[in-house]
Amino acid sequence: MKRILLMVLLLLCTATISMAAGYNYVAPDQFKQWLEKGKDMSIVDIQVPDEFQQHHFKGSLETNSYPVKSAADKQKLDAVLPKLAATQNDVVVICPRGGGGAKNTYDYLKEKGIDEKRIFILKEGMQGWPYKELTISDSK
Fold first, then answer.
1. pTM score above 0.90
2. Which of 22, 44, 91, 127 has an alpha carbon within 20 to 30 A of 64's alpha carbon?
3. Tell me, what CATH number does 72's domain have?
């Protein structure tokens, strides 16, 4: 009996740790619906300037902060913090692939007081975005 209780306890601890280290993601299909319905949200785009000019979403907050590792990268995000803090809108992080840079941004925004429940990462980032007609290009 003690052995079973110990195993259950270990499983619960493992599940809790896994959940605590998790991130909120929004799938491309769901994000497409949010865009089409005009959902109130803040889109924080961390792509480098060339990639942002090639493809971004209308209303995106351009930060050029990828990969959000250095103090200089984080300082670029600081510029959008007042806009994010001024509303209770969801925040969608746009990254080239939805990986490390997006997680770094998520963690930094959370550290700066943005409620984690509001922060989402676009799953697979811009490289995995299948609805190119919903992006804007500034390229000439």
1. no
2. 22
3. 3.40.250.10
